[in-house]
Description:
Low-confidence stretches: 278-289
Number of helices: 17
Strand order of the largest sheet: 3-2-1-4-5-6-7-8
Helix content: 25-40%
Order of helices and strands: HHHHEHEHEHEHEEHHHEEHEHEHEHEHEH
Mean pLDDT: 92
Oligomer: single chain
CATH superfamily of the largest domain: NAD(P)-binding Rossmann-like Domain
Largest sheet: 8 strands, mixed
CATH architecture of the largest domain: 3-Layer(aba) Sandwich
Amino acid sequence: MTESIIGEERLSRIALSSDELARYSRHLLLPELKAAGQRRIKAARVLCIGAGGLGSPAALYLAAAGVGTIGLVDFDRVDISNLQRQILYGTNDVGRPKLEVASERIHDTNPNVDVVSYDCRFTSEKAQDVIAQYDVIIDGSDNFPTRYLSNDVCVFARKPNIYGSVFRFEGQASVFAPHLGGPCYRCLFPEPPPPGAAPSCAEAGVLGVLPGIIGLVQATEALKLIVGEGEPLIGRLMLFDALKMKFREFKLRRDPECPVCGEHPTIFRPIDYEQFCSAQAAGDALESDGAVPSVSVQELKRKMDARERLTLVDVRESWEYDIAQITGSRLIPLGELEERLRELPREGILVIQCHSGVRSEQGARLLQQAGFANVYNLEGGIEAWSRDVDPTVPRY
């Protein structure tokens, strides 16, 4: 059991209305909560970084539980592919800003909750000021730059960072809080991987219910820290396998050499990891004989408009191609590419494209090894094309 992260001074200013006493009656029956615990929940301020697969269930259940203030960081709009797992949104919300819909849904769930929206990317410029306003942080991000940034800033601010991630049929969660005696995310993974090193859910897929399970674990951990009951996942990593319906747990220890929370830290301020990772990847590319050059979607559009001699090869699966495609692209799934090399011209430019740029980099490298010249990887894939060039191309 741990002490509540909500101080007595703030708690003394919090009272429950008759409506709230009725709304939270099932909480009040719990000896571990009672009215004092519910008042702590009402006094709490929780920040959800990301209002997607993990943030949706976490924010909804925290709102239903009566958390007084919920902050939401997101900059995206609702896409039809979100609806398979992001339960804050419905079919009629497609195309609307996520934060606008999320705020309406949360207020409908519990009008007593204050929702603070941050319609922006979570960057080093804003991170410290935002996190300073909250008691606990739920990291529902889906990319490494945000994950490392949120970890570092939480360590600096001495705020619990409730981590969650999902991939295909597996999920994991933990509470990173060096100030409470546990490790931070960097104790496990000291440096972020370069872009494209690990496929995203957009590339590899995810079972729709899985983010709900992990997001609810994150919400549960937040409530335990707020109330001061139970054993938080501090120093423990929970792994969940949906196919086997099995939970496993691993003990975690602080790394004394951790660059952020170790005995001799070397990082003292937030880093814009999106730029850091890109620069790191560029440096690696310069040292590699098999570097794959890339082209932006804007540059590809200019080349296509200028009718340059190029072949755009789409290495996604056929069902993905049926959903969305760039006009003039040639479909050759990555698994078939090596067997179909004779179909590709040896002259002119070859641009390899997938959903977000991971599979296409593999395809471009394969073509390079097969002796093809002038091979380029399309940065961001068809996702970037739809977002930055042609919004009529469906996103998924």
